[in-house]
Write a structure and sequence with these properties.
The protein is an alpha+beta fold and 70 residues long. The protein contains 1 helix and 3 strands, in the order αβββ.
Length: 70
């Protein structure tokens, strides 16, 4: 598997807007996006390089229920 590299926050914004998320508000240096059918807001930090920890799959010890919306 190739190494995960930091991503510029504007690239994440474009990806999630194309997926149907819409800008809701800004709190400090974090952009808050929402989408119908998604319970929790999406928070994107406005960093020049968003560390991979923010945009990778959750660790294996985090259990997800099938069909659950996060």
């Amino acid at each position: 598997m190739p190494a995960l590299r930091p991503v510029y926050f504007q690239r994440l914004v474009r990806v999630f807007e194309q997926d149907g998320f819409r800008y809701d508000r800004q709190e400090g240096d974090h952009l808050i996006y929402v989408k119908a059918g998604v319970r929790r807001p999406l928070v994107i930090p406005m960093y020049h390089a968003v560390p991979p920890i923010y945009h990778q799959e959750p660790p294996p010890h985090v259990r997800h229920e099938p069909g659950a919306v996060f």
